[in-house]
Structures are given as structure tokens and as C-alpha cells.
Amino acid sequence: MDENELAAVAATYRDRPVGIAYRADLIVASKLLIEVKAADAIHDAHVAQTLSYLRLTGLRLGLLINFSAPLIKHGIRRVVNNL
Q1: How far is Cα 36 from Cα 77, in angstroms, rounded to an integer?
Q2: Phi then psi for 36, rounded to 5 degrees?
Q3: Is residue 28 a part of any domain in this protein?
């Protein structure tokens, strides 16, 4: 398996495969989804996008990391899916 296949997330609709839905930025130990941004701020749309990715992968926990924040610790937002 090459590195591109590791981040590929397949989707199904009504029990039918529809192909690769998106490529995750990073999935850690099959438990944590990391979504990386470089935006002026983390907006509600970024959180909603990360939550959609969590639902698609079946994962429960994600980190939304904005590398444009002055301090990286201020650019991290925890996103949960039904915890």
C-alpha cells in the first residue's frame, strides 16, 4: 500500500460504494483525525467540515489545527462526533 492509499477515505451511499470521498490530512492510530488549515481564523465552516469527515470515517475525535495562528496552541480546536 502506498502513502496515498493510507489517507484515502472511501464512502458508501445506501450500501453502495461511491469511491474515494476525500484524502485525510492525517489519521493517527485509526482513532484520531487531524485536519490542517492555514486560515486567518477557525470558522464554523471548518468545524462543520471536520465533523463531516469524522462522520464519514466513523471516527469520534478530531483535531482542527490552524497553522496561521500566532501560537500553535491557540490554533488547535477539538472536534467530537457523538462522544
Answers
A1: 11
A2: -105, 135
A3: yes
pLDDT digit string, tens, across residues 33-65:
999 999 999 999 999 999 999 998 889 999 999
Kindly tell me if the per-residue pLDDT of 17 is higher than 60: yes
Claim: this prediction has a pTM higher than 0.85:
no
- The three three-digit cell numbers of residue 73, written as one number: 496552541
Number of domains in the chain: 1
- Which residue reads 481564523 in cell numbers? 41
Chain centroid to CA 79: how far?
9
Q: Domain range for residue 75?
A: 24-80
Is the pLDDT at 3 greater than 80? The verdict is: no
Query: DSSP states of 13-34 as a string?
Result: ETTEEEEEEEE-SEEETTTEEE
Q: Is residue 62 part of a domain?
A: yes
And the C-alpha cell for 51?
465533523
